[in-house]
Specification:
single chain; 409 residues; mainly beta; five-stranded antiparallel sheet; four-stranded antiparallel sheet; 37 strands
Length: 409
């Protein structure tokens, strides 16, 4: 049901063209026992639950599905869900107990998990907050004081916040969010909020003098929930407090806890309250852009395409048509792959291929360690050129091991 409670919030920022921010309570939705909150591009509401599932509601509050009531083998896919985020194709859920990320399709079908317990890349100790932006997945790896960055299929890309000067490092990060300008905001233990580019460059620390329990970002700055006062407060990127609303209580626009926070481009604010068992939806007036910031540059993302099972290869090369070429050392053969399957095998009598390259014209250049020479093969495997031999003369080789071919051949 829609409420007509209207709040007028006095702005602290003096350079604004208006003196008050209007906040209107739109609706209060029953939501189980929510521990985190996310809103997908279609307006669906995702709340992690105390019972180890993720409850998905329609924008009007109807239950659409529950994630995590699926088993992979004999073990549950979710035990203690943390953050939830979305790509165009997938839903990502971290699990702070199982130390992995679960991937569902957008209809809620389980796809797979990635990650294990440990300290190496793609290993976690209490993965919590998660965000997806510019084709990259950012996971707050709380126990390892870092944010790990992955491609949309779980390919490890980079680590943020674990190295560098002390003021750039993270300590127990729990929440991550990306604003519309491409800044990554990370909430760490002790309530510090640090910002980075999507490539991991440190931008600064937001000093709010608050105790944040939840975090969200829009074009204007950062919303955070103060666990002590149970207020929702808005800050600009320089740390200036713009306005606050809410308080502790059982009435509408009051909270008994704030466990999740989300904001949409239209100015809607979603607040998850585990103690009340609700998600409250409020709306502010339009948010103008205070500063025209250049969007931050992102890493190039990598998408997992497939794997070669049962094939032992070394020394890989990519052809101009996208095919993968590799050397099978045991068979002393060149394997040509298309979509992760062996399309052709090239072999020459009494040779020992140890390195290869593929030219722009599709020619295959091979270092033959048996005769200490270089062979040029056409795409069918026919030798069209051979040069070099064992020795110390000009044009001779002594244990050749690698080869590179320029674009001009």
């Amino acid at each position: 049901m829609r409420s007509f409670l209207l709040l007028l919030i006095c702005l602290i920022c003096s350079d604004r063209a208006f003196a008050f921010r209007q906040v209107d309570l739109v609706e209060v939705l029953p939501a189980g026992k929510p521990t985190t909150l996310a809103i997908d591009p279609e307006g669906r509401i995702y709340t992690s639950q105390e019972n180890g599932t993720v409850l998905v509601l329609s924008p009007s509050g109807e239950t659409l599905m529950t994630l995590g009531a699926i088993e992979a083998g004999s073990e549950p896919t979710l035990r203690h869900p943390g953050g939830v985020t979305f790509s165009p194709e997938h839903i990502f859920v971290t699990d702070t107990k199982l130390n992995h990320v679960v991937i569902f399709d957008r209809r809620g079908k389980f796809i797979r998990t990635f990650g294990t317990s440990g300290d190496d890349p793609k290993q976690f100790d209490g993965p919590a907050g998660v965000a997806f932006a510019a084709g990259l997945l950012f996971v707050a790896d709380s126990g390892h004081d870092r944010v790990q960055v992955f491609g949309p299929d779980g390919v490890y890309m980079a680590t943020i916040g674990r190295s560098g000067p002390d003021d750039t490092r993270l300590s127990g990060p729990t929440l991550v969010t990306v604003d519309p300008e491409g800044r990554l905001w990370v909430l760490s233990a002790g309530g510090t909020i640090k910002s980075y580019t999507l490539t991991g460059k440190y931008l600064g620390t937001l000093n709010t003098k608050r105790s944040p329990s939840a975090l969200a970002a829009d074009r204007e700055g950062i919303y955070l929930a103060d666990r002590n006062s149970l207020q929702i407060c808005k800050f600009d990127r320089n740390g200036s407090e713009l306005f606050c609303f809410g308080s502790k209580g059982k009435d509408p626009s009051q909270f008994l806890s704030v466990n999740g926070l989300a904001v949409t481009e239209e100015g809607r604010i979603f607040v998850a309250d585990r103690e009340k068992g609700t998600v409250q939806i409020l709306v502010t007036d339009a948010v103008p852009a205070l500063v025209n910031l250049e969007r931050q540059v992102s890493l190039t993302t990598v998408r997992w395409h497939g794997e070669l099972n049962g094939v032992a290869v070394k020394r890989l090369a990519i052809g101009p048509d996208g095919r993968l070429y590799g050397i099978a050392a045991k068979e002393k053969a060149i394997l040509i792959f298309n979509d992760a399957t062996v399309e052709r095998t090239l072999q020459i009598k009494d040779w020992d291929p140890v390195a290869l390259a593929v030219g722009a014209d599709g020619a295959i250049w091979v270092v033959d360690a048996e005769e200490e020479r270089v062979l040029k093969l056409d795409p069918s495997g026919k030798v069209t050129l051979s040069f070099g031999s064992s020795g110390s003369c000009d044009g001779c080789f002594d244990d050749p091991s690698d080869i590179v071919v320029s674009r001009k051949g």
